[in-house]
Amino acid sequence: RVEILKMLYRKADILIFDEPTAMLAPQEIEHLIDVIHELRRYGKTVILITHKLDEIKRLADRCAVLRRGRLIDIFDVATTDTAHMATTMVGHTIDYRLEKDTQPFGEPILQVESLTVSRNTGITAVHEVSFTVRSGEVLALAGVSGNGQIEIVQAIYGQIKVASGRILLGGIDITDHSIRSRIRDGISYVPEDRQRTGLIVDMSLSENVALKTYGQEPFSRRRILNRDAFHSHARALIEAYDIRSGSGETTIVRSMSGGNQQKAIVAREIDLGNKLIVFVQPTRGLDIAARAHIHRQILEERAKGHAILLVSLELEEIMELADTIGVLYNGVLRKIAPADQMTIEEVGRLMLGVEA
């Protein structure tokens, strides 16, 4: 709202919205859509940058599709179906089907007990949050950005200190363990920012997929790196996870697309074979095809009996993948319940602090 007011104060006639709904609750999205329609009625020109087909259908008159820096097509939205849009965006047809079988959950893998975390400013970011993620379960944490989700994940992974409470993995208290120890204990982590915290973008693909295992055999012995092992391991992951790169395992990661960078991180973390996998914004900024690929990988790991903790600002993603949903508001877990007992509207209200 502040950014829109700033644009109107400057009397701008051309307004550019870049992924404007990425961090909004459903009710806020509806309000923003109303605002954009109102701006059009006032004669403003609106340029919307988004990968969400439903937003294109609801807001746009015309759609220009860019792929790998090239203008592929421009078409009238009213006369074009979403299937054609999707195919044009990625260059091939997409299989949207997600196979999510009903299965009983196993033993508790991650137990978070009365977790309280403070920010560097001393303000409490997370207040006495408790939840359990079991084997074969996807537990999703929903909330508007800045309501404690990231701090919970950072505490679980050991990136920030816990003010009070406990974190147990497989029944073992890991609250005071180092990050390296937590990886060995069985935590895999797909972070929110793939380029800043997930990858070293000026290194090769083979080096990046071995970031957490380079000190182990066969990648090294007596502190001497085995480059052949790096390359063969990377080639296996490239094939298994459909990672596309210009020069194969020797490709510098910076030159890869965002979707393939994300596939590389997911491949690395799943390949560790850990019992808990934490996904934070796993499909942020990805095209439809890469998004579908990541979703299938998450559900495949669920089917194998791994525990999945998912943090996402995309409610549609949460509703598609989650078995259990916890909603955070102002650092407090407002509600946690089976996904099939919650609606997207209820989750949205809880995200805004409104009683459901």
Number of helices: 13
Tell me the series of helices and strands, N- to C-terminal.
HEHEHEEHEEEHEEHEHHEEHHEHEHEEH
Which CATH class of the largest domain is shown? Answer: Alpha Beta
| Percent in helix | 25-40%
Specify the overall morphology. globular
Going across the major beta sheet, what is the strand order? 10-13-14-7-15-16
Strand content: 25-35%
Number of domains: 2
CATH evolutionary superfamily of the largest domain: P-loop containing nucleotide triphosphate hydrolases
What Rg, in angstroms, do the CA atoms define? 22 Å
Report the count of strand segments.
16
Compute the separation of the termini in Å.
Answer: 24 Å
Largest sheet: 6 strands, mixed
Overall SS class:
alpha/beta
Task: Just name the CATH architecture of the largest domain.
Answer: 3-Layer(aba) Sandwich
Q: Which fold name is given in CATH as the topology of the largest domain?
A: Rossmann fold
Which labels suit this protein?
356 residues; alpha/beta; Rossmann fold; 2 domains; six-stranded mixed beta sheet; four-stranded antiparallel beta sheet; 13 helices; globular
Write the topology of this structure.
Layout: H1 2-9, E1 14-18, H2 26-41, E2 45-49, H3 53-59, E3 62-67, E4 70-76, H4 82-90, E5 108-118, E6 124-134, E7 138-142, H5 149-157, E8 164-169, E9 172-173, H6 179-185, E10 187-190, H7 194-198, H8 205-208, E11 220-221, E12 224-225, H9 227-240, H10 258-271, E13 276-280, H11 288-303, E14 307-311, H12 315-321, E15 324-329, E16 332-338, H13 344-351
Parallel strand pairs: 1-2, 7-14, 7-15, 10-13, 13-14
Antiparallel strand pairs: 3-4, 5-6, 5-8, 8-9, 11-12, 15-16
Helix pairs in contact: 10-11
